[in-house]
Amino acid sequence: MADITDRQMSIKPGPRDIWLNESAPKGHGRFMARIRPNGERLFYYRYTDSTRARVRLPIGSYDRDGTSGLTLKAARQRARELTELYLSGVTDLREHLEAEEAARKAARDAEIARLEAEKAASEAELARQAARKTVSELFDHWARVDLIKRKDGGAEVRRMFNKDVLPLIGHLAVEDVRKGHITEVTDKLLSRGVNRMAKQIFSLMRQMFRFAVDRDLIDSDPSASIRKAKIGGKDVERDRVLSEEEIRALAKQVPAAGLLVTSQAAIWIALSTCCRIGELLAARWEHVDLNKRTWLIPSENSKNKKAHLITLSEFTAQKFQQLREISGSSPWCYPNTDCSGPVCPKTVTKQIGDRQRKPGQKVMSNRSAMAHALILPGGKWTPHDLRRTGATLMTMLGVLPEVAERCLNHTEENKVKRIYQRHSYAREMADAWTLLGEYLSKLITNEQGAQKP
């Protein structure tokens, strides 16, 4: 018997199966082909198993081009491989091949499972990376939930973070922030000499990271191991009070300091009413009655959320009258440039600070060139020091300390007094503001002669 040919494999099917055989040495298996009446063409390997039974083991279907089956050459090669296996002592090829196929299937399944697990892990990691919040995103989240509750809607904190925090660490994933990243922010502030701001920004960063811990965005607060006292040294309570000589000097220096008239008025109103500068800059004309000489600080503008009615002395009323003429039809005493609201609460503080720079310090860009115009002998002063100075002058003029405290709108610390002492001190407070205004008017008038401050 000769070898099977492609021509034989292509003959027309008959009414019965047509078998084609290739010769093989005795004891070897035989390569065979089968052409079925339906046109199907199949390859087999025939051998004798351990029970002496003849077995036809299917090899595959025929396809001359090898696209949908085995070519004749490939089928013959497979038959030779089976012969080698058979001669090696494997007498039950079917069982052996089934075991091999099962092993191959298990290996394929294991590989598929491994690839799917790797893919799932990769997708999970990508999802985790995509879900990681950056510090900037955390800040926005914190601002929407917590900062929005603040009086200014978080505007001042956002300004501070946009300037000094987010440019340094805003791009970092929150979970990647370490102690060193936080101290990098505070160290930069300390290098500018703004120690108090460094402490304030550190406290705000700590609040933000604790917000993240509460929401399981991070496991621990990276600022937890940093002691606030180590940032810029221990807080020192300010006790700056302007002396009479300094108030007289201020009366001469303010007009020549290049300040807006409204900012000049703010200095004297803050000194003569003991108000907070932020309360003044947020004032609306609907709360000022120049006829009755009163100014109501509503609860939403007050630090302790308590409304505060101030009696305006002649001295203070004149300053408010100046503001009235300048602000025109605006509902705000200190309108911003487009009259859509009040000016920034830091406006006057910055203007005063810009004019008290040390002799060796350079003039800051986009700031006043009058860098030393408001320096006083007692050292740097702020609008808040004017509040303290006004209260101090009141007690010097004989006002009871308890009345001066009421003029400051401080909350009574003694709980018993707070509950049972209900006297309003309205008349005493009005007298105290009047007394302070008269004193300041005389003090400044004496310095400037007949001129008004």
TrEMBL record:
Keywords: Coiled coil, DNA integration, DNA recombination, DNA-binding. The keyword Coiled coil applies. GO terms for biological process: DNA integration; DNA recombination. SUPFAM superfamilies: DNA breaking-rejoining enzymes. It holds the Pfam family Phage_integrase. This is Tyrosine-type recombinase/integrase. Belongs to the 'phage' integrase family. Residues 237-434 form the Tyr recombinase domain. One of its GO terms (molecular function) is DNA binding. It comes from the Bacteria. The keyword Cell inner membrane does not apply. InterPro entries: DNA_brk_join_enz, Integrase-like_cat_sf, Integrase_catalytic, Integrase_DNA-bd_sf, Integrase_DNA_bind_dom, Integrase_recombinase_N, Phage_int_M, Phage_Integrase.
